[in-house]
Amino acid sequence: NNNIVAIVGRPNVGKSTLYNRLIGERQAIIDDISGVTRDRQYGTSFWNGKTFTVVDTGGFVKNSEDVFESAIRSQVNIAIEEARVIVFMVDVTTGITDLDEEVAGMLRRSDKPVYLAVNKVDNHNRLIEANEFWSLGFENTFFLSSITGSGSGELLDAVVEHI
Ligand code: GDP
Ligand code: MG
């Protein structure tokens, strides 16, 4: 339970894309029927000689906005409890949303190390736009493109320092 890196954030920001990049074929098979667990996927990853478990959240609960929001809140609370490090992913193409602000507040109140991953930074213009996310107040803010992988190495270098 000690080397868990949890990826949290709103739907569609790119959590599963990063997760799949980190996990490849090493998907853990979780045989558990609880709804919250069903909404989490665990896999093993390696970086800089460290082995750790990555958790992807929010994959399967797809109902109303209300269900989304409470599901995201519970995923964030579980991450705060179980993870060693939390990657909070946001999306440069939507900018900062109310739900991003809410999650940011929950994470700031926790004492877990949090890495803000501003995703979909595919080009230079988006890198300029991405600077607005510094206002969420996370000292550890990284800009990446999970699709191309650019910037993900720098994020992982920092994250596995905690492993
Ligand atoms: P999740 O709901 O947070 O797990 O998001 P997904 O990983 O399912 O991605 C949502 C959508 O964003 C998909 O169409 C992805 O292909 C796309 N996406 C993910 N990462 C990037 C990225 O770095 N750049 C761009 N342009 N699209 C991305
Ligand atoms: Mg997903």
The CATH fourth-level homologous superfamily: P-loop containing nucleotide triphosphate hydrolases
- The amount of helix comes to 25-40%
Strand segment count: 6
Q: Which strand order spans the largest sheet, edge to edge or round the barrel?
A: 2-3-1-4-5-6
Strand percentage lies at: 15-25%
Largest sheet: 6 strands, mixed
Q: State the separation between the terminal residues, measured CA to CA.
A: 11 Å
Number of domains: 1
Number of contiguous helices: 6
| Nearest-integer average pLDDT | 89
Q: Given this structure, which CATH class is correct?
A: Alpha Beta
Bound molecules: guanosine-5'-diphosphate, magnesium ion
Protein name: GTPase Der
Binding site for GTP 1: 9-16, 56-60, 119-122
Subunit structure: Associates with the 50S ribosomal subunit.
Domain EngA-type G: 3-163
Please outline the helices and strands.
Elements: E1 4-8, H1 15-23, H2 35-38, E2 40-47, E3 50-57, H3 65-82, E4 85-91, H4 98-109, E5 114-119, H5 124-129, E6 141-143, H6 152-159
Helix pairs in contact: 3-4
The structure holds guanosine-5'-diphosphate (GDP) and magnesium ion (MG).
Residues 15-16, 58-59 line the site of magnesium ion.
